Amino acid sequence: MISYFISLLYPTYCEGCGRTLVRGEECLCLYCLENLPRTDFHHYKDNPVEMVFAGQSPVFRATAFCFFNKGNIMQKLIHQLKYKDNKAIGFYLGHQFGLELAKIEAFQSIDLIIPVPLHPKKFRQRGYNQSECIGKGISETLSKPMDTSSIIRVTPTSTQTKKARYQRWENVSGIFQLTDPNALTGKHILLVDDVITTGATIEAAARLLLTLPWVKVSVACLAYAGN
Ligand SMILES: [Zn+2]
Q1: pLDDT tens by residue, 130-167
Q2: Looking at residue 222, what is its pLDDT?
């Protein structure tokens, strides 16, 4: 009852359409939540995200929650998450994503959730790792622990969009380092990132993790920006 009166005094707005949220709604209104441009990729093998890794690293399963297009709601939400200090939207979308992953058998054997680490310099600039916000939402929904320290980023990478494919892959080798290999050995690890485009960065992290014995790597990105 008290929170109802507080919401009358301080209304919150949908991050998608700007409408006033009603009781039971959080971050997004029901309409925006139901109309998210979901990919449903996790329901089938060899989906477009898995094809990003084909012939590169043998990931177990890979998927993305929604499509990312110029001007669509995901672009808007991810902009909020990355540049407007809106950590809650990352946690909220991670939670929604986790609800979908929980229905898929292949994702039930996950032992550990690892958000793709930011370089310390970038982390200081932003004040947080946006992938960690998403990972936290997934972690709570799947009831699996999150690990933010066993793999670190040691090299900041420059923008790679204009480079040839082979140069991109070369450019990202060696950007991550393992700090605690024993904590990861034998685990099925879910790598979490915000947007997947070329997949080069997340592939570099996957490749490093796969050097450990009996490790299985799956990938969950909030948005897919490929065509
Ligand atoms: Zn809305």
Answers
A1: 999 999 999 999 999 999 999 999 988 755 555 555 55
A2: 98
Token readout for 7 is: 């919401």
Ligand 1 centre to CA of 72 (Å) is 13
Question: Per-domain residue ranges for the chain?
Answer: 1-35, 37-224
Calculate how far, in angstroms, residue 179's C-alpha sits from the geometric centre of ligand 1.
42
pLDDT in tens, 166-203: 554 555 568 899 999 999 999 999 999 999 988 888 99
Angle between the 87-101 and 73-83 helix axes, to the nearest 10 degrees? 130
Instruction: Specify the fold of 37-224.
Output: Rossmann fold (3.40.50)
Instruction: Look at residue 178 in the predicted model and tell me its pLDDT.
Output: 94
Ligand 1 centroid–CA 12 distance in Å is 11
> pTM for this structure?
0.90
209 CA to middle of ligand 1, Å?
Answer: 39
pLDDT band at 47; cut points 50, 70, 90: very high
Q: How far is CA 190 from CA 89, 128, 205, 220, in A?
A: 20, 20, 11, 7
Question: What's the 136 CA to ligand 1 centre distance in angstroms?
Answer: 23
C-alpha 14 – ligand 1 centre gap (Å) = 5
What are the φ/ψ torsions at residue 94 (nearest 5 degrees)?
-60, -40
Q: How far is the CA of 16 from the centre of ligand 1 (A)?
A: 5
Cβ-based burial of 140 (10 A; exposed 0-12, middle 13-18, buried ≥19): middle
- Rounded distance from Cα 80 to ligand 1 centre (Å): 15
Ligand 1 centroid–CA 33 distance in Å is: 7
